Amino acid sequence: MTMTKQDRICMISLFAVMLVLMGVPALCLSTNTVVDELGTLTNTALLTGRNWGTGILSNGGYYYRYGMAFVWLLPIIVYKAASFVNALFMATTPVMAYYIGRRYLKLEKEKDAALLAAGSAIISSVMFQAIYLRGDMMLIVLNWVCALFILNAMYAKTKKERQIYTILLSFCAVYAYACHSR
């Protein structure tokens, strides 16, 4: 299936809507004082030479989610900017859902694919979980990436393409685990 101009417009529109729905609240929130957010932030602090050990001990006693920490290695990035980057990642989910609907589910109408994408990716509970700086966001996004790799591998024309998509799928699954492991 070849992507048409209308497909591109739908995908850009879905991205923009999701970015607004996620980005505006992300810029208005402050850091939570729960283990998930502090765990991610303290890993970044640890990897950049700072020690927030006392803070993390008072909130559960362990460092975890090193996969997410690699995303935020620059110490200059503040919480709101990091949350907005999470919103950027999340804005790709309806685009991936639309692409899957058009290419692999063979939805002929752009409207049907757009409704499928909105219904499966723009879910308030998912958006709420992903808006904070926690590993849940990467699990949500990487599920869609894994689905794309699985479908690409299934429909690959050559054995080499299948192998490449399988390797990418494996990396993606391991990275998802690293983002949310304890």
List keywords for this structure.
182 residues, mainly alpha, 10 helices, flat
What does this structure look like?
The chain has 182 residues and is mainly alpha-helical. The chain is built from 10 helices and no strands. It has helices spanning 5-28, 35-47, 53-57, 66-69, 79-90, 92-103, 110-121, 124-131, 136-154, 159-180. 32% of the residues are buried. The mean pLDDT is 80.
Q: What separation lies between the terminal Cα atoms?
A: 41 Å
Q: How does the major sheet shape up?
A: none
Instruction: Output the helix-strand order.
Output: HHHHHHHHHH
Shape: flat
Radius of gyration: 18 Å
Residue share in helices? over 70%
| Main structural class | mainly alpha
What would you say about this model in short?
With 182 residues, the protein is mainly alpha-helical. The chain is built from 10 helices and no strands.
